[in-house]
């Protein structure tokens, strides 16, 4: 049987090395062999677990945050959207938590941006009549209340290594019959001219080609029509270093081994996210744990714990810790809010 590795090797042998972004695109979204197009990657039987799968409390906090932003902006008719909704767990918890917010469900139509046919099926089974989009460009021009949890980390990136006043691009090529990383010839790069001031020879910078356009469209809708976006992911301000990682069965593996069978991610550059969101405003980057605590997750955890005992209670306590503690997901994951110029930031975040 022909594998994706076979197809990539033939392509490279014919046309030469490919960018890391091209490799990631094929590995994640190839129509026949791509990671996201062929499987449900989430949960204990998958390759990784996200915050919504750890505890319902995560989605509840997000839902109430978006509902508060909706009320603060006058309860407009518009869109409730999620980028990369996984199995639909986060949106299911958002909808349940906001069921008691008068008018919220009636005012906001549910729209999901999802490329995976497998995950679209899971979302359709769990959520009420979602409208699907292949990308953000077809979301309606209307007030937009949006969440993106671990969406941007899966977007393909290119990697550049500093060489004097120029840059070499890290490319995927062949060594005999094995996929391997190599370097292009050094050349000046206008895209990274500003990074000459804070890098040295050998440093690696990652660039996500799709990110500015996606955030630009989100920022345009929110800045023009109103709404709010919560971007939650691991990363920091300004890309630095090789952050590419692959997970299979919850264990790290070689990103170039058996493409299409492992999840590929990189750390998110929050500087690019915020700078691409004009004309909307952006908040300070806030650790996930701090954000959730400000929204009241500990009080919610204590309330839920009153009806629990034994193993269920221990699991509940562990889930709260995993979401909020600095040594777990609390500091690794960051949150940034996008909001209109004339309004206050989403709850839990600061301008």
Mind sketching the topology for me?
Layout: H1 4-15, E1 18-19, H2 20-29, H3 35-38, H4 51-54, H5 56-72, E2 78-83, H6 89-97, H7 104-107, E3 108-113, H8 117-126, E4 131-133, E5 144-149, E6 158-163, E7 166-175, E8 178-183, E9 204-207, H9 211-225, E10 227-236, E11 245-248, E12 251-253, E13 263-265, E14 268-269, H10 270-275, E15 281-282, E16 286-287, H11 288-295, H12 297-305, H13 310-324, H14 326-332, E17 333-339
Parallel strand pairs: 2-3, 2-5, 3-4, 5-10, 10-14
Antiparallel strand pairs: 1-7, 6-7, 6-9, 7-8, 10-17, 11-12, 11-13, 15-17, 16-17
Helix pairs in contact: 5-6, 12-13, 13-14
Tell me what you see in this structure.
It is a single chain. This protein is of the alpha/beta class. It folds into 2 domains: 4-33 and 158-207, no CATH class; 37-155 and 209-240 and 252-339, Rossmann fold (3-Layer(aba) Sandwich), CATH 3.40.50.12710. The chain is built from 14 helices and 17 strands. It has helices at 4-15, 20-29, 35-38, 51-54, 56-72, 89-97, 104-107, 117-126, 211-225, 270-275, 288-295, 297-305, 310-324, 326-332, and strands spanning 18-19, 78-83, 108-113, 131-133, 144-149, 158-163, 166-175, 178-183, 204-207, 227-236, 245-248, 251-253, 263-265, 268-269, 281-282, 286-287, 333-339. The strands form 3 sheets. Strands 2, 3, 4, 5, 10, 14, 15, 16 and 17 form a 9-stranded mixed sheet that branches. Strands 1, 6, 7, 8 and 9 form a 5-stranded antiparallel sheet that branches. A 3-stranded antiparallel sheet has the order 12-11-13. A hairpin with a 2-residue loop joins β11 and β12. The mean pLDDT is 93.
